[in-house]
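Comment thread on ticket #2218

A.B. wrote:
> Attaching the input chain for the structure job we discussed in standup.
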Amino acid sequence: MAAPGNAAGEMTNAQLIQQLALLNWLKSDTTQSKDILTAITQLQVGREIFNRLTGQGKVEAYKKECILQIADYVQKNPSASQRQLNTEVEKQVLLFAARVQALDSGSLL
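C.D. wrote:
> Ran it. Output below, let me know if you need it in another format.
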């Protein structure tokens, strides 16, 4: 599914699917349409609880930040040597790994 929120304010795929199911139920008011809406909502709630318990949202944010930091370095240092690029990538990946490891350690408490 799509990442939550964006600059255009569009719905995520999951939100769109839920809204379609809701619209179907509102228009038809059948048991089947209510069951579909219930199932979709249960999936979304379950996924959100899983992401919060596992810290998956934070991992994705850390990953995005890691990539952006590397891209920023490359942009600001266009004449960097391959060794310098490798050093920066390694630094950012190690930072990412440490942050994820800290999440794992924190979730045990």
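A.B. wrote:
> Thanks. Noting for the ticket: The chain has two domains: 13-54, 56-107.
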